Amino acid sequence: MNKGLQAVNALTPGANLEAYISTVNAIPVLTQEEERELAERLHYHDDLEAARRLVMAHLRFVVHIARSYSGYGLNQSDLVQEGNVGLMKAVKRFNPEVGVRLVSFAVHWIKAEIHEFILRNWRIVKVATTKAQRKLFFNLRSQKKRLGWLNQDEATSIANDLGVETKTVYEMEGRLNAYDASFDPAADEDDDTAYQAPSNYLEDHSMDPARLVESDNFEQDASDRLHMALDQLDERSRAILQQRWLAEEKATLHDLAAIYQVSAERIRQLEKNAMKKLKDAMGGALLPA
Question: pTM for the whole thing?
Answer without folding.
Answer: 0.47
